[in-house]
Amino acid sequence: MRSLRVGAAQLGPITRDASRGEVIDRLVTLMRRGSDAGAQLIVFPELALTTFFPRWYLDDVPEELDSYYETEMPGPQTQRLFDEAKSLGVGFYLGYAELTPEGKRYNSSVLVERDGSIVGRYRKVHLPGHEEHEPDRPFQHLERRYFEEGPDGFGVWAAFDGVMGMALCNDRRWPETYRVMALQRVEMVLIGYNTPLHYAPDPSQNPLQSFHNRLVMQAGAYQNGTWVVGVAKGGLEEGVESLAQSMIIAPSGQIIAEAVTTDDELLVADCDLDWCKHYKETLFDFDRYRRPEMYELITQPKSEQ
Ligand code: CDT
């Protein structure tokens, strides 16, 4: 048995005017609570340092837009999270907006070990929403304006005595996300998300948000024999209601912990990484049963399909 005690640190709303310091105070509080509960890894949401700014068209206020990005990780403000992690001996996953020295913007996450060292970085592959201002929507979803598509794909990292993977929000809806990591023997996939309950292109999906959230993450876990930790920033943020329902899912596909609020909340669960073997070495024994020669279409460039 390789047991990893994980804390899923759900966040409630972050207001538009919240300072980094205020938000980091909340993250540190959750990290300390996790440490008190014996957690070795704390998982925070996507864009966990700021309000979900892609809901606004911000061309008129470029300085506000820039203020939402981190130019360093750790930077002067986020260093506190790394110091706290090191002194508590607790690792963490954190979603944030990244602005690189070359001026590229990504929706990113970082995985930090219990000694405060960076294990890996991930840049969101599947960017949802739209590029241009669509004033008829009740709110914008301008991820495709404010970020570039992550160019690095889905890596995995040897950390926390297991094989860890990262994804962000919309990635969780795509089976390829989990499968590409499972082909690298992933044992735990960490996924932060911000999911507005209202989906403007097709509001018939609104009442299904909660169902779809469970559906995709439970299927991803089971079909790939991996733990999945999905962590929301939920609740009513600047007039937009977002799904909470953070959860920790076993390789069996069973939910073993689920949030009951739409606010800051910590779920703690013991995750036996050896549980993955039950699935990876039987029903989903990839070497024995997969038929990649039958799946060629999946890897063809879009224009050739
Ligand atoms: N952050 C993020 O990726 N949210 C999307 C919202 C739906 S697309 C407008 C999601 O897949 O949950």
Task: Please tell me about this protein's structure.
There is one protein chain. The protein is of the alpha/beta class and 305 residues long. It has a single domain (3-277), classed as 4-Layer Sandwich (Nitrilase/N-carbamoyl-D-aminoacid amidohydrolase), CATH 3.60.110.10. The protein is built from eight helices and 15 strands. The protein has helices spanning 20-36, 62-67, 79-88, 143-146, 175-182, 209-224, 275-280, 286-289, and strands spanning 3-10, 41-43, 69-70, 91-99, 105-112, 118-123, 156-159, 162-168, 188-193, 227-232, 235-237, 240-242, 247-249, 255-258, 265-272. The strands form three sheets. Strands 1, 2, 3, 4, 5, 6 and 15 form a seven-stranded mixed beta sheet that branches. Strands 7-8-9-10-13-14 form a six-stranded mixed beta sheet, with helices on one face. Strands 11-12 form a two-stranded antiparallel ribbon. β13 (247-249) and β14 (255-258) form a beta hairpin. The longest helix has 17 residues, at 20-36. The chain is globular and about 55 Å long. It starts with a strand and ends in a 16-residue tail after the last helix. The mean pLDDT is 98. The site of 4-methylsulfanyl-2-ureido-butyric acid (CDT) has 11 residues, from loops. 4-methylsulfanyl-2-ureido-butyric acid binds at residues 46, 128-129, 141, 169-170, 173, 193-195, 199.
